[in-house]
Amino acid sequence: MTMRGFAPAFWLLSLVAVGAAVSSAEAEDETQFCNWSLNVQKSLADRIGRQIDPVTRLANISVRCDEKSILFIQDLRVSSSQLQPGWLKRLRENWSRTYCREQSESANAIHSGWKVETLLSTPDGQTFRLTAECNDQVAIDLRRGL
User: Fold this and answer.
1) What is the dihedral of CA 64, 69, 70, 73, to 10 degrees?
2) Whole-angstrom Cα distance, residue 22 to residue 82?
């Protein structure tokens, strides 16, 4: 299985981000983002252990409100040698764009110290951590529609 345009589970996780954008007016403090994160964890509980796209299995979701952290843990069905050059950079950029939409609940939480991350593991033992980073370049790209 080769990796072309690899974007593991972004269709699923983008739904989470869309929900965050819709409800941004409701959540302005950490308690509300914690509750939102716990609801995401609960709503995706039935997908844990299942394939969420042809090459990705959702292994777990960890919400640690005391640490201001939500972590999506995913297993890839392909080895790291099958991943295209530059895939990690593109995936990191997409991850940040997904969670840094202007005025979204997740962007506001990230600016106040929360981490929204995914941990990807390959069958050959490689792990990759993606952390959403809401910075000026992400904001500029989002305004341009990139």
Assistant:
1) -90
2) 37
Whether the Cβ atoms of residue 121 and residue 75 lie closer than 8 Å to each other:
yes
Strand ranges in the chain using DSSP code E only, listed in sequence order: 51-53, 56-64, 69-76, 115-121, 127-131
Using the structure block, give the residue that is written with the tokens 């302005």.
Answer: 28
> pTM score, two decimals?
0.74
pLDDT tens digits, one per residue of 18-46: 454 444 444 456 788 899 899 999 999 99
d(CA 16, CA 13): 5
Of how many residues is the chain composed? 146
Assigned CATH class of 10-144: alpha beta
* Alpha helix positions (H), 23-135: 30-43, 87-99, 105-111
